[in-house]
């Protein structure tokens, strides 16, 4: 195989890898944006209900000398028609599991939309639905620019 063919194959692999990474990140942000649209709908409904902290989601943070634990406070709520609402509110960074467990049963208010989307009222205060949308637009623009450059270079026979 001559050097020109090797260069073309190498460039094609690089281009494929870049598109794969950008595509995966774009898909992740699109899914997160769709979830945020549901949370926005719950806020806009202004339908508040009271529920209780029902459990802990534990995340282990590995430190230099010891592990730390981040406990996300989980909640669930069921409407009379059986629609399930669940999520997390607040995080507690502590080594004391009993302290984190002391929050179980604590009442919180959540917004629900009637379709399974919810958000804690305390989280709705600084909620920004456009955060992931802006990332989707930015990554889409990078993909479009990269594609335009790739097409231009291919037309000139440089790749």
Write structural notes for this entry.
- The chain is an alpha+beta fold and 159 residues long.
- The protein is 49% helix and 29% strand.
- It has helices at 3-45, 97-101, 121-124, 130-155; strands at residues 47-61, 68-78, 84-94, 107-112, 118-120.
- The chain has a five-stranded antiparallel sheet.
- Strand 4 (107-112) and strand 5 form a beta hairpin.
- Helix 1 (3-45) packs antiparallel against helix 4 (130-155).
- The protein is elongated and about 70 Å long.
Topology diagram in text:
Elements: H1 3-45, E1 47-61, E2 68-78, E3 84-94, H2 97-101, E4 107-112, E5 118-120, H3 121-124, H4 130-155
Antiparallel strand pairs: 1-2, 1-4, 2-3, 4-5
Helix pairs in contact: 1-4
Main sheet specs: 5 strands, antiparallel
Mean pLDDT: 83
Helix content: 40-55%
What structural class do helix, strand and pairing data support?
alpha+beta
Rg over CA atoms, rounded to whole Å, is 23 Å
In short:
The chain has helices at 3-45, 97-101, 121-124, 130-155; strands at 47-61, 68-78, 84-94, 107-112, 118-120. With 159 residues, the protein is an alpha+beta fold.
Main features:
alpha+beta, five-stranded antiparallel β-sheet
């Amino acid at each position: 195989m001559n050097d020109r063919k090797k260069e073309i194959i190498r460039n094609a692999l690089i281009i494929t890898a870049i598109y794969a990474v950008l595509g995966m990140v774009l898909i992740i942000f699109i899914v997160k944006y769709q979830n945020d649209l549901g949370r926005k709908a719950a806020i806009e409904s202004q339908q508040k209900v009271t529920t209780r902290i029902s459990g802990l989601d534990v995340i282990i943070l590995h430190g230099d000398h010891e592990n730390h634990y981040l406990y996300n406070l989980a909640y669930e709520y069921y409407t009379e028609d059986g629609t399930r609402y669940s999520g997390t509110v607040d995080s507690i960074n502590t080594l004391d599991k009993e302290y984190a467990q002391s929050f179980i049963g604590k009442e919180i208010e959540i917004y629900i939309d009637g379709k399974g989307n919810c958000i804690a009222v305390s989280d709705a205060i600084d909620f920004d639905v456009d955060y992931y949308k802006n990332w989707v637009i930015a990554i889409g623009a990078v993909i479009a620019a990269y594609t335009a450059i790739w097409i231009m270079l291919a037309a000139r026979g440089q790749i």
